[in-house]
Amino acid sequence: MTRKINAEDRKTVGKMYEQGGSDAEAAKLLGMTKSQFESAYKDFPTFQEFIDLCRTKAEAYFNKVARESIFSKEINTTLLQFVLKNRIGWADRVDTTNRNEEIGEAATARQELGKLLKKLTEKDPSLAAQIVLEEINDKAK
Predict the structure, then answer these.
(1) Fewest C-beta in 10 Å: which of 4, 37, 56, 124?
(2) 3-state class of 101 per DSSP?
(3) Measured in Å, how far apart are the chain's first and last C-alpha atoms?
């Protein structure tokens, strides 16, 4: 860190985050580059804890703005949406799966199951009839 952060710095930075401030603004107030700020965040646990608390304050600020402006026509919704998505991590939709991969895995499993059933029914033909009857009953439900 370039210098020790005093109580006045903490108060100023805390207030800035309470109004939706960012890490870049905090770095500027503390006389640091973003790189120095990020290094201090990684290297000093007390600084990290302080910044985590401040980031929570900034997120709470934007959540409050969003909540209070739901029915307001005076808010720039595009700008608010941009801030919430890029600063807070909101998303319209989160797609955490790869459908093609799932479909491929299901097809492979179906093929393997078909091979196993074929082997079973070759050994005991009565199993084939039983499987067909259970499938008919399942579809009837």
Answers:
(1) 4
(2) helix
(3) 68
Six-digit token string for 18: 């309470």
Q: Is 43 in the same domain as 78?
A: yes
Number of domains in the chain: 2
Q: DSSP for 50-100, please give it.
A: HHHHHHHHHHHHHHHHHHHTTT-SSS-HHHHHHHIIIII---S----S-HH
Residues of the domain holding 135: 99-140
Express each pLDDT in 54-83 by its tens digit.
999 999 998 888 888 877 777 777 877 877
Q: Same domain for 30 and 81?
A: yes
pTM above 0.85, yes or no: no
Residue 93 lies in a domain: no
Nearest to 20 by CA among 89, 91, 84: 84
